[in-house]
Amino acid sequence: MGSCSPQLPLICLSDQTLKPGSSKWVKVRSDVRKALEDYGCFEAKIDQVSMELQGSVLKAMQELFALPTEAKQRNVCPKPFAGYFSHNGLSESFGIKDANILEKAHEFTQQLWPEGNKSIKMIQLYAEKLAELDMMVRRLILESYGIEYFIDEHLNSTYYRMRLMKYIARPDNDITAAVGANVDNGANDNADGDANVNDDGASIGVKVNVDVGDDVNDNDSVNIGVGVDINVETNVNGHLDAEANGDATAWVVGAVSGNASVGAKEANVDAELGLPSHTDKSLSGIIYQHQIDGLEVKTKEGKWIRVKPAPNTVIFIAGDALCALMNGRIPSPYHRVRVTEKKKTRYAAALFSNPKEGYIIDSPKELVDEKHPRAFKPFDFVDLFNFYHTEAGRRAPSTLQAFCGVSAGK
Length: 410
Ligand SMILES: O=C(O)CCC(=O)C(=O)O
Ligand SMILES: [Fe+2]
Known about the structure:
Bound molecules: 2-oxoglutaric acid, fe (ii) ion
CATH class: Mainly Beta
EC number: 1.14.11.-
CATH topology: Jelly Rolls
Structural class: alpha+beta
Function: 2-oxoglutarate-dependent dioxygenase involved in glucosinolates biosynthesis. Catalyzes the conversion of methylsulfinylalkyl glucosinolates to hydroxyalkyl glucosinolates.
GO molecular function, one term: dioxygenase activity
Helix content: 25-40%
Oligomer: single chain
Number of strands: 21
Keywords: Dioxygenase, Iron, Metal-binding, Oxidoreductase
Binding site for 2-oxoglutarate: 346
Number of helices: 10
């Protein structure tokens, strides 16, 4: 309240009043289209998920992440990175395919708790509610472009995957100073997903963490801003590994690293990022951040909007597959996670919708006209995802553009 920091559009999708065909529905439909065309995402106020269910899901997540590593690693998926994944000690996540369907979600229980566990029921119920919400939003989108005939085919061509995330709390006993580091301009620069910085050289913010121990200095006010020689390896943008099903994330493997010398003491240079900037590969994602903020979304103007968590609020975000399907009319925004609160563990849950394997994504002809010439060639989502794992896919400023952009000339 009263804050002038930029915010995402907030749209009320509350069940009580939103009935198809009602005047509220028509208004929400145009709000959804406008928000997505402008930002590729919006905040949604919802009442479909009770506080009780939210609490149960949080408890289930805490229980899951507290399992011994060997148990967590049983959450495997034939595709790499789609199961349990630990990212440089900064975050860890589980993946649950078809989390909204009870029988399928039970496969996840089998992996982690062969003796059975009631938590999965809560997670499944939660996924079911978010899936209903997601389908409503995708229905609103297609209606808003006047392609109602396509709704059933579209909804039937997709499935869901849930991702549960824990961002590990940073300790409190370090001194930090923000510094800017310029890395060479080149193909790798935009492995952080930032396609807009190519011409100016990519500037990345890195954080110098100095562990002030007795052996270094008793004085906590060490001035590390002076004489710190930062050597940030350009492998900051080493390579990105996408989630195997392509639904969501590009993780940087081998994050920002380098050394800074402070007197005789070595300090680690590390990204503050819990999750580097990326676009989701999915059609859509619904993200719920529990109490601790961290999610930031990039606007078309290149500004980062930090999304504040609220109990009955989720974020709807468009992915590359939706961008392609909608002939580029809806962008898939870059977003990242920066957990700035110390000593606080951040939990987040996201439900992604993906096109089924074998389904060809092709913009309906109604979305193509003189003002909007066809932007992408038809493709199978699996192929987009596989391309993402190639060197060329990783280096591309925009995976989607490089893979199937009409201007890519392939
Ligand atoms: O943790 C979050 O808030 C977002 C996670 C995310 O962007 C992803 O999993 O693709
Ligand atoms: Fe994401």
